[in-house]
Write a structure and sequence with these properties.
The chain has about 280 residues and is an alpha+beta fold. It has one domain. It has three helices and twelve strands, in the order ααββββαββββββββ. A hairpin with a 2-residue loop joins β8 and β9. About 35% of the residues are buried. The N terminus is likely disordered.
């Protein structure tokens, strides 16, 4: 199970040892006040090296509407979503809607279907890009590497690689990147349908292809940030490609720290994939 601010662990010595990691999840955004001066970002627009923290996140309400930057009175527990950039519900196929409704109804009825991360599986793509933990980008000749505090997940992204026609299916998938002006374009395929888009459980199949376009912007706090516009193409789950949006604030004031994942605790799933602990 992931150790996060959303999940309360028993106050054992092990839980106390994770206090620093929990602090990041709970405080990293709050510590950066609006307009906080965090130092100048790299002068080169192609230099994304540094630590980032997701901001401008969206929460799904019980009426299936989305609220950005805060929780409304109808917000569901653990309901961070990666939905369309125009705030509309994704264009589900019948398959996609069936799988989403199953998870949504479970959340409404307080019988949530187990999140893959509760079994210490990687968050997977694209969900890892909205995880409420720090992420560090390291650029080296020919590669972009993204290091995530959550579960110590890694995205290893070669530049200008030809993606395989039959990729190995993994939670993080296989990626290739190239520059389009000042925008870093990342294509990812081979993402396991066992993973989900977000906390609420927006589904996808193994046929999902994600195309990201990352570039520098100023976020709503006036801070330097990367905007990640993600085009999702999955003919099994969606009737047409659609675009989601993540904003990652540049945070040179924080660092990645230890993260521990434990299995077989009180939030483990039963034989039907259900979990009762919130």
């Amino acid at each position: 199970m992931r150790t996060s601010v959303k999940t309360t662990l028993c106050l054992t010595a092990a839980a106390l040892a994770l206090a620093v990691s929990a602090h990041h999840g709970a405080q990293a955004q709050e510590d950066a006040a609006p307009g906080a001066k965090l130092g100048a970002k790299p002068a080169d627009p192609h230099d994304f090296s540094g630590v980032y923290f997701v901001t401008e996140s969206a929460q799904l309400n019980s009426d299936r509407t989305v609220k950005y930057n805060g929780r409304g009175p109808k917000a569901l527990p653990h309901s961070r979503v990666l939905w369309t950039a125009d705030d509309k519900e994704p264009p589900f196929t019948a398959w996609g809607r069936e799988h989403f409704d199953e998870r949504f109804n479970g959340a409404i009825n307080n019988q949530p279907i187990a999140d893959p991360s509760t079994s210490c599986l990687p968050h997977g793509m694209p969900r890892i890009m909205i995880a409420p933990y720090p992420m560090q980008i390291v650029q080296t000749p020919g590669h972009v590497t993204m290091l995530f505090e959550v579960n110590h997940n890694v995205r290893y992204i070669p530049m200008n690689r030809v993606l395989p026609k039959h990729p190995k299916i993994t939670m993080m998938g296989e990626s290739s990147a190239h520059w389009d002006g000042d925008t870093l374009v990342i294509e990812t395929v081979g993402i396991s349908g066992q993973s989900i888009f977000d906390e609420i459980g927006t589904p996808h199949s193994d046929q999902l292809k994600v195309t990201e376009r990352l570039h520098w912007i100023k976020n709503k706090k006036g801070q330097d940030a990367l905007e990640d516009l993600m085009t999702f193409d999955d003919p099994i789950a969606y009737t047409k490609p659609w675009v989601g949006r993540a904003v990652l604030a540049w945070r040179p004031d924080i660092t990645l720290t230890e993260y521990v994942c434990e299995e077989n605790n009180r939030n483990t799933a039963d034989a039907n994939g259900k979990t009762t602990a919130r």
